[in-house]
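Recall the central idea of this unit: under ordinary conditions, the amino acid sequence of a chain determines the structure it adopts. In this exercise we apply that idea directly, starting from the sequence alone.
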Amino acid sequence: MNEILLFSAGIVALVLGAESLVRGASKLALSFGISPLVVGLTVVAFGTSAPETTVSVSAVLTGQTDIAVGNVVGSNIFNVLFILGIAALIVPLRVDAQVIRQEVPMMIAASALLLLFVLDLQVSLFESVFLFLLLIGYTVFLILQSRRQSALVQAEYAAEIKPAAQSAWDANLPVQIALVLVGLALLIVGSRWLVTAATGFARELGISELVIGLTIVAAGTSLPEVAASVSAALKGERDIAVGNVIGSNIFNILGCVGAAGIASGVAGLSIGAAVVSFDIWVMLAVAFACLPIFVSGREIERWEGMLLALLRRLRRLPHSRCAATRSTASLLVSDSVVCGAHHDRDFGGRDDSATCGR
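Accordingly, the structure predicted from this sequence is:
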């Protein structure tokens, strides 16, 4: 019960922290004359990924590296299959040509690069720094590119991201700075609560921290992306809904893994064998699957959204190495294999058990 309360409090703190950070940083940037498009591509996009970053770094600092890695891989799978799926069920999502030509290939390249780095079951400090530098370089490229965007794109972002009115409560500089600081504090506290609760779940349920990271932690830290994309879909900003998800996935790999690896120091970020043998391949496959879906009519139809949402529920085949790995999972599945027992769990709390062969 304590873990459930701590986990719930952590999720609330992360969501409120991300919202406060994005609101404060966006208004602050706009107050200094930065264009809404640049704010949308940087502050808003990175702010919605702040929970993943703080949770992964916090997990590394407390020695829970499986949660750190599982959180990133699970979030990327969840973002595409669940968030895009649900958003497309609300309204068919338009896919901008730039997303197909630039963002999706970048997401695939980042996923493939991470796969290459983890083949030796570790992300070294050098590789982590390299990922983080790639993120900085890509961000600079986006800012430079934004200067050449069409008036239509500029207007769309300007309509979504507006400076605070003079009479608004967040129009003053001290309030905007306070929002940023409060947001950062909530993210730090929330991430610690979430990691502590996740570790407790793993211990009490007898499953690995990797499973917890890949499932409930990944889903919890993706809530800001859920809110941003569903809200954009409801407002008719259908291309922004897609851009939020793809941009978040790129940031998760380059930023979250990069920051977590840097936090791990010279020892490097250790990667579980289960991630390398299964979960990261699912993440890469999901990234590749975006291309044919996005290219076909440059729109994600409702039936394609339903297909994405259903794919998340597909069950994987149990690992043959039951004794070698305590468990592994992805958000395509909700079952886990532990040494000696096969527990079938989903978010609804159902639990079926069958003994693994010895």
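The longest helix spans residues 173-205.
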